[in-house]
Design brief:
By secondary structure, the chain is mostly helical. The protein has helices at about 1-10, 25-160, 160-184. Helix 1 packs across helix 2 (about 25-160).
């Protein structure tokens, strides 16, 4: 340590002229060199360092501002997308409900049309059955009447003479005519 303080003290008495030489004592010259280099760096480098730091600070602030603007833009886009999604979901629900309503309406219409068709078919069936019953009844009546008439004619032919026979046929024809008018 004594060498270091001696080197500072020896600065005061440099030989005024004489020889020029190098001080090879590293411990004595190193702190002086370092202090000179640091002094020069601080004096001249301070402005450059401040400029570099200011530029860096401005770039960082600019990047932060840009990031904030991008963030705000992204938030706005997100809000618009959410609003659009909500609108689309509402429209989809409306279409779904309208579709269900339309399906229900079509189902009711189909059921009503089928019910009406079945009712019509039932009516046609009943009319056809009634018609067939009446036709069958009329055929059976005619057959029974024909058989009764033929049986009566055979009985009368064997029992009666021709004049009585003629009057009986005329009376039966009159009865038959009256029955036909009743059935029509």
């Amino acid at each position: 340590m004594k060498n270091v303080t001696d080197s500072f003290v020896s600065l005061g008495h440099w030989p005024s002229a004489g020889s020029f030489g190098f001080n090879t004592d590293i411990l004595a010259t190193n702190p002086i060199n370092l202090s000179v280099v640091l002094g020069v760096l601080i004096f001249f480098g301070k402005g450059v360092l401040n400029d570099l730091l200011d530029n860096r600070k401005q770039r960082i602030l600019s990047t932060i501002r840009n990031s904030e603007e991008l963030r705000r833009g992204a938030i706005e886009q997100l809000e618009r997308a959410r609003a659009r999604l909500q609108k689309v979901e509402m429209e989809a629900d409306e279409y779904r409900m309208n579709g269900y309503s339309e399906i229900e309406r079509e189902k009711v219409n189909l059921i009503n049309a089928t019910s009406y068709s079945l009712e019509q078919l039932e009516n046609y069936k009943n009319e056809t059955l009634h018609f067939e019953q009446q036709r069958t009844i009329n055929q059976v009546r005619q057959e029974v009447f024909q058989q009764a008439l033929q049986g009566a004619l055979r009985t009368l032919s064997s029992c009666l003479n021709s004049e009585l026979h003629f009057r009986t046929i005329s009376a039966n024809i009159g009865i038959l005519g009256a029955m036909e008018e009743i059935t029509d």
